[in-house]
Specification:
The chain is built from nine helices and twelve strands. With 315 residues, it is an alpha+beta fold. The protein has two domains: 171 residues, 2-Layer Sandwich (Ribosomal Protein S5, domain 2), CATH 3.30.230; 130 residues, Alpha-Beta Plaits (2-Layer Sandwich), CATH 3.30.70.890. Helix 2 crosses helix 3. The two termini are 12 Å apart. The structure holds (R)-mevalonate (MEV). (R)-mevalonate (MEV) binds next to helix 4 and helix 5.
């Protein structure tokens, strides 16, 4: 038996990091995907092949003993073998067109597509169950995940999300184009999130003020999205970037890229954890060409993405 699933990557438009502390975030799925194929095999092995390497292990190993970015797949396969009382193995193949480890949701998309492909080898699973499994799997590499990334990778489109209330789809289909520029500095979400926690502990009052400011900004953005007010949205992006600078998740290269974006588009900011990874610039057809050419002139790796409205897909 074979089962296949694919899930999109994501861009956090507003509210990364603050979402970990309960503030609402706005994010969208993008038209770059991870595809996972899972297959039952007779050998008692969990075998994972991907473009970042392979992992082949016997089932029932303690998850804490596994040191591999492919650990979430092992966790999912092992869990399904255990809960379904199976003694055989699973082979998993991962194909990705999302650049890895740069804040575009590659690991969440892996967890979502992995949860779907692996669980559906044994049983029909709903999107809700797949999301729950995916977040569990993501926690094997990043314990404090807010769950926002896996949620948008599952449901697609633009969503608002907070830890307490979960997600709501945002119905508008804004006509913006996002340009992504990659700093090619790899980051670990976990260590950047730990850095923010340290900032918070040293600056409790300031951090709490920033949470209030971010929360207000997100509410304003929800109105602007309804009105498709792209210029004002750009201003909010610039404002959000200031908050991210304050909590220390930016660096010189990211600032330079953001400057290129802010001069040539409606607004630009980090997306995801920061410390490296990607920034995005908000454009429409009036300034898209000009803005992307500015990034290219400066030799930054850049590409445009569209919103993915499909989310998780199973075959
Ligand atoms: C990472 O893509 C987003 C963060 O807000 C962490 C999280 O939400 O789990 C930095």
């Amino acid at each position: 038996m074979k089962s296949k699933a694919s899930a999109p990557g994501k861009v956090i438009l507003f509210g990364e990091h603050f979402v970990v502390y309960g503030i609402k975030t706005i994010l969208c799925a993008i038209n770059k995907r991870i595809t996972v194929t899972a297959e039952n095999i007779d050998e008692e092995k969990i075998s994972i092949k991907s473009n970042i390497g392979d992992l082949v292990l016997e089932p029932n190993k303690p998850i804490s003993e596994i040191d591999s970015p492919l650990k979430p797949f092992y966790y999912l396969a092992n869990k399904m073998l255990q809960t379904q009382n199976q003694t055989k193995g699973i082979k998993i193949i991962v194909e990705s067109d999302i650049p890895l480890g740069v804040g575009l949701g590659s690991s969440s998309a892996c967890c979502v597509a992995g949860a779907a492909a692996i669980s559906r080898l044994f049983t029909e699973t709903s999107k809700e169950e797949i999301l729950e499994l995916a977040i569990e799997a993501e926690k094997t590499i990043f314990q404090n995940t807010s769950g926002a990334d896996c949620t948008v990778c599952t449901y697609g489109g633009i969503i608002e999300y907070d830890k307490k209330n979960g997600f709501t789809k945002i119905k508008s289909e804004p006509n913006f184009h996002l340009i992504i520029a990659n700093s090619n500095i790899k980051h670990s979400t976990e260590s950047v999130v730990t850095g923010v926690k340290q900032f918070k502990e040293k600056n409790e009052t300031k951090f709490s003020q920033l949470c209030n400011d971010e929360s207000k900004l997100v509410e304003d953005v929800l109105k602007l999205l309804k009105d498709n007010n792209i210029k004002e949205l750009g201003q909010k992006i610039i404002q959000n970037q200031k908050y991210l600078e304050t909590i220390g998740v930016s660096n010189e290269k990211l600032r330079d890229m953001i400057q290129v974006g802010q001069k040539s588009s409606f607004g630009a900011k980090i997306t995801g954890a920061g410390g490296g990874g990607c920034i995005f610039a908000l454009t429409d057809e009036s300034n898209f060409e000009h803005s992307i050419n500015q990034f290219k002139d400066k030799k930054y790796e850049c590409f445009s993405v569209k919103i993915d409205f499909k989310g998780l897909d199973t075959f």
